[in-house]
Write a structure and sequence with these properties.
Low-confidence stretches: none
Helix content: 55-70%
Strand order of the largest sheet: 1-2
Length: 107
């Protein structure tokens, strides 16, 4: 009976194809928020905010966030090094002026 149901006048008819593919069912895209748009601009992925499409894939957002995260770490490292250099200079200046914390503590 089943083999006869799929045949029409001796020809085998294939079952109807699904409208949605697996990619369409599981979309990996999302609408970027205003912060996401800034991240995409800071990472250099897009030049202007108008160039950003309505939906952006999750992979693109993850790469942009990682790039901005690394850039932020570099800035924090640079600021830490500058702070250390500034404290060394300040300490040497205080030592020359004989304005040490030991002397201040005795007063």
């Amino acid at each position: 009976f089943c083999s006869q149901a799929n045949q029409t006048e001796g020809k085998v008819v294939s079952p109807p194809q699904a409208k949605y593919t697996g990619q369409a069912l599981y979309r990996s895209e999302r609408r970027p928020t205003s912060f996401d748009k800034r991240v995409l601009l800071w990472s250099g992925r897009f030049k202007k905010e108008e160039d950003i499409p309505e939906t952006v894939s999750i992979e693109v957002m993850n790469k942009a966030r990682s790039k901005v995260r690394v850039m932020t770490c570099y800035v924090m490292i640079a600021l830490t090094i500058l702070g250390c250099i500034g404290m060394v200079i300040s300490g040497k200046k205080a030592l020359r002026e004989d304005n040490t914390s030991v002397k201040i503590g005795r007063a």
